[in-house]
Specification:
The chain has 128 residues and is of the alpha+beta class. It is built from 5 helices and 4 strands, in the order ααβββαβαα. It has a 4-stranded mixed sheet with strand order 1-2-3-4, sandwiched between helices. It starts with 6 loop residues before the first helix and ends in a 17-residue tail after the last helix.
């Protein structure tokens, strides 16, 4: 079964596709090229939620977390639990990591897919 949402969530997702943050745009430019044959969707409606990026075949949600995400932790945890109940794994990456080391972020995301190669997660920002 394909993961989708109600009409109002789908409409909101369409609007958000035109308002993506710079880290989301940069990450989308890579994910849209079907990394390892995986097809990602941007701003995908899933139940009451909108996922930054979603790959249906891998049941994988990618969320780009900016500076303001610490205050949304409870809401993010509830969303992640709901997605897990739907069989979807959520991977969170920091916006600054997308800007600082995109290659490491992509390697980390691909390592989370069923066919992903074993890779280390991206280093925290500021570490070399």
């Amino acid at each position: 079964m394909r993961l989708s949402g109600p009409r109002e969530t789908i409409d909101r997702a369409r609007r958000l596709r035109r308002q993506m943050s710079l880290p989301e745009v940069i990450l989308w430019q890579v994910l849209r090229r079907k990394q390892q044959g995986l097809r990602f969707r941007k701003q995908h409606a899933a139940g009451p939620y909108i996922l930054d990026f979603y790959c249906d075949s891998a049941k994988l949600c990618i969320e780009v977390d900016g500076e303001g995400h610490s205050w949304r932790q409870d809401r993010d945890e509830a969303r992640d639990r709901w997605l897990a109940d739907q069989g979807v794994k959520t991977v969170r990456v920091l916006a600054r990591d997308v800007l600082d080391d995109l290659d490491a972020v992509i390697a980390y995301i691909l390592a989370q897919t069923p066919s992903g190669a074993l890779c280390a997660p991206p280093p925290p920002a500021g570490e070399d």
